[in-house]
């Protein structure tokens, strides 16, 4: 396994269009996170999945954003009616199955950069 | 609320110099975890170290060392004999456990440029 995979790596779209990003986590990892990173800032938490269940959503995730993880494997993040403020790097991370709470490192993908014109 | 402050926005050093990246955090939790991640130009965040709040031992890994001081809420990172490959953005992060998963707060990052 080569790590967390995200695609597309870069998406340029016009305001008002819908975009979808895909994340393939490391295969044995059951926890999956989406983060957003804008220029000069650290990543900000968007949402969390344990297996197929979406257990937490940040207030940053407006109604135009929806994330899914069918079958607990890959995940998609869709942004509807994109706005220029949505321009950012969208990072996916996964972490391995543990018996207790998730306290370990996050394994990040290379991100999907969104540019909204 | 959790907060991580990395006051140094950008640092430039000449190769082989030592450099320390500062990190100060705020949390009300008694149990928490601290991390450092490296983000090279390719964009992928790479895990460097994790520390829990009960372990204040300093750690050394090759040219990297970390100084965790609970009394000053700091978790500083030192690179000894820096190399050009160390050039990257370094993020300090703090996590609390909420509902069984990590809620990670990242600092704004310190961009390190190592000049040959």
Task: Spell out the blueprint of helices and strands.
The complex is a heterodimer of chains A (117) and B (116).
Chain A: E1 5-7, E2 10-13, E3 19-24, E4 29-37, E5 44-50, E6 53-57, E7 65-68, E8 75-79, E9 88-96, E10 107-108, E11 112-116
Chain B: E1 3-5, E2 10-14, E3 19-21, E4 24-26, E5 33-39, E6 46-52, E7 59-61, E8 64-69, E9 74-79, E10 88-98, E11 101-106, E12 110-115
In short:
The complex is a heterodimer of chains A (117) and B (116). With 117 residues, chain A is mainly beta. Chain A has no helices and 11 strands.
What distinguishing features does this structure have?
heterodimer, A: 117 residues, mainly beta, seven-stranded mixed β-sheet, four-stranded antiparallel β-sheet, 0% helix, 50% strand, globular, B: 116 residues, six-stranded mixed β-sheet
Account of the protein in words:
- The complex is a heterodimer of chains A (117) and B (116).
- Chain A is mainly β and 117 residues long.
- Chain A contains no helices and eleven strands.
- Chain A starts with a strand and ends with a strand.
- The model of chain A has no long low-confidence stretch (mean pLDDT 91).
- Chain B is mainly beta and 116 residues long.
- Chain B has no helices and twelve strands.
- Chain B is globular and about 45 Å long.
- Chain B starts with a strand and ends with a strand.
- Classes of the chains: A mainly beta (117), B mainly beta (116).
- At the A-B interface, β5, β9 and β10 of A face β5, β6, β10 and β11 of B.
The N- to C-terminal Cα distance of chain A equals 35 Å
Structural class of chain B: mainly beta
Give a count of the beta strands of chain A, DSSP E runs of length 2 or more. 11
> Sheet with the most strands of chain A?
7 strands, mixed
Overall mean confidence score, pLDDT of chain A = 91
Uncertain runs of chain B are none
* Oligomerization: heterodimer
Alpha-beta content class of chain A:
mainly beta
The amount of helix of chain A comes to under 10%
Radius of gyration of chain A: 14 Å
List unreliable stretches of 5+ residues of chain A: none
Q: Provide the succession of SSEs of chain B.
A: EEEEEEEEEEEE
Helix and strand sequence of chain A: EEEEEEEEEEE
Radius of gyration of chain B (CA) equals 14 Å
The largest interface is: A-B, 28 and 28 residues
Mean pLDDT of chain B: 92
Approximately what portion of the residues of chain A adopt beta-strand conformation?
Answer: over 45%
Number of strands of chain B: 12
Shape of chain B: globular
């Amino acid at each position: 396994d080569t790590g967390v995979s995200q695609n597309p790596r870069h998406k340029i779209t016009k305001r008002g269009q819908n975009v979808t990003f895909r994340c393939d986590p490391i295969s044995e990892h059951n926890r999956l996170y989406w983060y957003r990173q804008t220029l000069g800032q650290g990543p900000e938490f968007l949402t969390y999945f344990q297996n197929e269940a979406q257990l937490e959503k940040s207030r940053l995730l407006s109604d135009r954003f929806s994330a899914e993880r069918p079958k607990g494997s890959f995940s998609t993040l869709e942004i509807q009616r994109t706005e220029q403020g949505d321009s950012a790097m969208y990072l996916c991370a996964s972490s391995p199955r543990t018996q207790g709470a998730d306290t370990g490192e996050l394994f990040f993908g290379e991100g999907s950069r969104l540019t909204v014109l | 609320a959790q907060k991580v402050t990395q006051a140094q926005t950008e640092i430039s050093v000449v190769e082989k110099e030592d450099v320390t990246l500062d990190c100060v955090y705020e949390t009300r939790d008694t149990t928490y975890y601290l991390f450092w991640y490296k983000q090279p130009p390719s964009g992928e965040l790479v895990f460097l170290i994790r520390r829990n709040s009960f372990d204040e031992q300093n750690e050394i890994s090759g040219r990297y060392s970390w100084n965790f001081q609970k009394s000053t809420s700091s978790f500083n990172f030192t690179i000894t004999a820096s190399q050009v490959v160390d050039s990257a953005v370094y993020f300090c992060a703090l996590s609390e456990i909420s509902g069984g998963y990590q809620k990670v707060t990242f600092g704004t990052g310190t961009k390190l440029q190592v000049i040959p």
